């Protein structure tokens, strides 16, 4: 028999240990501090535009009915965009799921079980003595084995005294907003990619026109050299040289046609449809180069670029996760309740005397498993810092893309102007060489060289025009345009 004073001592010791455990578990880590951000530039390459091209809707910016129709088709059929939409639905479901933890969890329960108590157990002795009572008769006699039937409701509820559950809901909501920004980023990239393929097709159309025009020049020159051979003014070698050049130009024509097929198929895949011809406007040969473009200020880019907004929301969500992990060190208050019909005989289950109810509340805090809580906290801190660096990296990428595309628009414009002058000079040289060759003042090699040079110059000019159209499209995307 344990003396009474020893029993009280044991109780005090247990209470002291429990209190010490709760107090030790309440020691919170220090709040997370992020390093200070580096200052951002106040302008792009010294530009001070107040309003940039990203403020324009993509329908207004591109202003090409064929391109607008292709983008509309992509918005309806692109599979990447549909995947992004499902990510939004998943994030919305996660947010709704997190909201449920703030309310009591109530479950309808229908259960049945059986226990066989030993004669030397507390329940076995108690039931035996109870059955000997004069008040226990008929259905009140406790059988052994003892069935247990319950029909009713059970509830559990963690009271959010530290804001842990509310922060989980907040983090889920931030991730829901982030998924919407992710969909906008997919739209922006898709609009730019459709425009890329479209301008590549227009450039290839221009190459076909240039090649066909040069084929006509070379056919005329071949006819002329054949006449001069019959007159004895040139040899068969001249005819062969002109014929070889014409064959080479025609082979280029076939290669460009194959590139058109490949680009059309890539664009159709982006639109979410099977291969078919792409309706488009005039080639880049007939289009004016874009003039000076406005960029706006960097602050506008931060607001408009969906990937930057998404990275910022992710950073906020991970910071909230750190607060949730810190709250795991604190005790949690839980309430457990039940209400229903409980009996050990089915015949008496639905009697009024079988109505049972119970309520239990308690504080629980991690003691022996604190290393798991600490590990979860360290993981949350690492993810938060990683998210910060990703956010900063996204901003740096945005500035780099804007500057590169802006310089590309300006540099390609000056290159195209010089190449246009070169083409004009070489076209005059072709006419001059033909006249001199017909008069006997120039050799056939000079004619071939002039024709080859003008072909290469015209193809280089169309390539530069394509590069500038792509650069201004990339600039529009980099500034955050194209998702609305």
Jot down its keywords.
Outer membrane efflux proteins (OEP); 10% strand; 4-stranded antiparallel beta sheet; 11 helices; 4 strands; 484 residues; 64% helix; alpha+beta
How do the strands of the widest beta sheet line up side by side? 1-2-3-4
Question: Using only CA atoms, what is the Rg?
Answer: 40 Å
Average pLDDT over all residues? 85
Helical residues, percent:
55-70%
In CATH, the topology is named: Outer membrane efflux proteins (OEP)
Shape: elongated
Tell me the name of the CATH class: Mainly Alpha
Number of strands: 4
Unreliable stretches (pLDDT < 50, length at least 5) are 1-25
N-to-C series of helices and strands: HHHHEHEHHHHEEHH
Largest sheet: 4 strands, antiparallel
Which structural class best describes the helix and strand composition? alpha+beta
How many domain regions? 1
GO molecular function: efflux transmembrane transporter activity
Family: Belongs to the outer membrane factor (OMF) (TC 1.B.17) family.
Subcellular location: Cell membrane
Main location: membrane
Summarize the structure.
With 484 residues, the protein is α+β, with helices and mostly antiparallel strands.
Structure description:
This protein has helices at 4-25, 58-62, 65-77, 79-99, 122-131, 164-230, 236-271, 298-304, 306-327, 370-439, 444-478, and strands spanning 105-115, 146-159, 332-343, 355-364. By secondary structure, it is an alpha+beta fold. It is built from eleven helices and four strands; from the N terminus they run ααααβαβααααββαα. The radius of gyration is 40 Å and the shape is elongated. The longest helix has 70 residues, at 370-439. This is TolC family protein. Belongs to the outer membrane factor (OMF) (TC 1.B.17) family. It is a lipid-anchor. Keywords: Lipoprotein, Membrane, Palmitate, Signal, Transmembrane, Transmembrane beta strand.
